[in-house]
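Why does residue order matter? Because the sequence determines the fold. Keep that principle in mind as you read this record.
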Amino acid sequence: MPHTDLIIVGGGWAGLAAATAALQRGLSVKLFELSAELGGRSGAFRDNNFDEWLDIGPHVFIGAYKRTFSLLDTWGSKDGIDFGDGGNIPWIYPNNRTEWLKTGDDRSKLSAFLNLLSFNSISLPDRLRTANILRVVPDLRNLDPHTEPTVKGFLRKFGIDVRKNVFWYNLAVAVMNGAPETVGAWPLVRALREGLTSGGSVARIGVTRQNFQKFFCDYAEKYLKSNGCGIFKRSSVTSVKLSESGKVKGVKLKDGECESNNVLLAVSPLDASRLLPGSVRNKMFFRTFSTFDYSPIASVHLNYSCPVLEHPFACLPGGLAEWVFGRGEQEHGGWSRVNTVTSASPGMSEISRDEFLDRVILDLAERLPKAKPEIITEARLVRSKRATVILKPGSDLIRPEAVTPTDGLFIAGDWCGTGLPATIESAARSGWDAVQQIRKQ
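Structure:
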């Protein structure tokens, strides 16, 4: 292949953000993606039984996702997010008992405190303790990774037992994709500081009106191609090529090579490590890539013969599935097509597929009166064993910046040094910021 200014390996949010930024700065770009479609773990796949595109896993979009929304606006797909009543989240318990959590409205950050005080799913003392945390969080700036507590330890300092507080437990697991006893508190604190504690529109939660393929993958691909980016799907990059002096020369492909003085690996730390020559992989900077542990996410896609979910999405406290989402456009009376998501559940991978499906289906039937198992027409479980990295206390010490010790080699991904949890926004910022560093070299 001809020489190009920048090779990007990985077509998830980090890679797409980097490609967009590079094109806007006049660089020629080639993007290689192993899968059949773009989007990475936030992508979609075609299921013939459902006769539709299914998301690998549902995601929410927080109003504070500035880089994400900027990219969607550039690609022309920003209108695909529905904030609807995104400031009001139903928490649905067995027997269809529902409590409402307000997260964002048009008022000042004071609304964040007032909203929590009216949330009846936690005790009044815990509501007051939570309001105190949200009061303190904006002023927590010097977050030392050497003394970072776990989420459980951080909350315990304020008198909260995370396992007995459904608000904090479900929030921590959803945002961090890890057990509160395991994950570090600082990424969660930063996410709260940017979103919930600010109140107003940045604290609102939106969901997509369509599957990810139609919502952003098609738009992003069209934008990149129309601006000259070469996109190569189903393309296997086997390693990074180096010159005798140790500088980047390009990448080796399963069926050829591509030359460039700049390569951006927008993949997981495990995949990034695999693509490095042994002489590079053993350097201290890159050795940390193998120290990350991973956490799974599972999603269940269900079709019912009639609408069963009245809300665009809802929290399911205490369930195997923690959240349920309406899939596609709302029908008369709600959604008959739904997705659930299960994050970082202990032993989740040991549960058989049939048992997992059965437990989710029965739990939904206990919470949603119309969701009878006998009216299910299609069901599918999708598991991602290594969905995100686990950001343990001190993770800022090993999360890399974009620039590496190898001349011409750069790194991006939700696991990199953004300070945020491993989210879409973290990936988007990482990819965008990587190009700023490439331009400085």
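Residues 104-203 form one domain.
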